[in-house]
Design brief:
The complex is a heterodimer of chains A (about 110) and B (about 110).
Chain A lengths: L8 E5 L4 E6 L7 E8 L6 E6 L4 E2 L4 E4 L5 E6 L8 E9 L14 E6 L1
Parallel strand pairs in A: 1-9
Antiparallel strand pairs in A: 2-7, 3-4, 3-8, 5-6, 6-7, 8-9
Chain B lengths: L4 E3 L2 E4 L5 E6 L6 E7 L5 E8 L2 E4 L8 E5 L5 E5 L8 E8 L7 E2 L3 E5 L1
Parallel strand pairs in B: 2-11
Antiparallel strand pairs in B: 1-3, 3-8, 4-5, 4-9, 5-6, 7-8, 9-10, 9-11
Classes of the chains: A mainly beta (about 110), B mainly beta (about 110).
């Protein structure tokens, strides 16, 4: 699986937007970009995923670069509950069977009141 | 149930004993994953099931670790002759076929004294 690079940590203020970057320069055509987050003492939680087009859901937006070598997870208004480790993961899909989710170190997001 | 269920939530055992950890995936999910997370560390992939077969066992750290899945549903992770370095949170996830993103349980915290 192709590797991703994320900053170790980021800080945000409550109620402000947060842009979490991820570089994946060796991404292949079958790799989907997945984002998970892990709150303290909990299992990872699915956030969003996409292939080429930007994606929006109730939790966040995912902006994917045209060359797919980078992406950005956007939290539109950070809350204290959004403080977590955010993982950007590439996962291959082979037309019905999935590759594994290989977690890196992620970005630890702190949200200040 | 509505989500991935893992049991026990906490297990304390003595070095050298065997332990079994159980995962009940989301109903209808055919893919099942085991990960472990040591204190302050990232998630380490252990094994992946598609149905009852395990196409990827590459993450099992030693032959003391084994896992099985029966009836395409419940999975058991067994650790024989536990060592102190086995202490970790063991996380299970499941996903539907196709492009489903895995959903995680809350984990089983194993402490080996």
């Amino acid at each position: 699986d192709a590797k991703t690079t994320q900053p170790n940590s980021m800080e945000s203020n409550e109620e402000e937007p947060v842009h979490l970057p991820c570089n994946h320069s060796t991404i292949s055509g079958t790799d989907y970009i997945h984002w998970y987050r892990q709150l303290p003492s909990q299992g990872p939680e699915y956030v969003i995923h996409g292939l080429t087009s930007n994606v929006n859901n109730r939790m966040a937006s995912l902006a994917i670069a045209e060359d797919r070598k980078s992406s950005t997870l956007i939290l539109h208004r950070a809350t204290l509950r959004d403080a977590a480790v955010y993982y950007c993961i590439l996962r291959a899909d082979y037309g019905g069977s999935q590759g594994n989710l290989i977690f890196g170190k992620g970005t630890k997001l702190s949200v200040k009141p | 149930g509505a989500g991935v269920s893992q049991s026990p939530s906490n297990k304390v055992t003595e070095k050298g004993k065997d332990v079994e950890l159980r995962c009940d995936p989301i109903s209808g999910h055919t893919a099942l994953y085991w990960y472990r997370q040591s204190l302050g560390q990232g998630l380490e992939f252990l094994i992946y099931f598609q149905g009852n077969s395990a196409p990827d066992k590459s993450g099992l750290p030693s032959d003391r670790f084994s896992a099985e899945r029966t009836g395409g549903s419940v999975s058991t992770l067994t650790i024989q002759r536990t060592q102190q370095e086995d202490s970790a949170v063991y996380l299970c996830a499941s996903s539907a076929t196709g492009l489903g993103s895995p959903f995680f349980g809350e984990g089983s915290r194993l402490t080996v004294l």
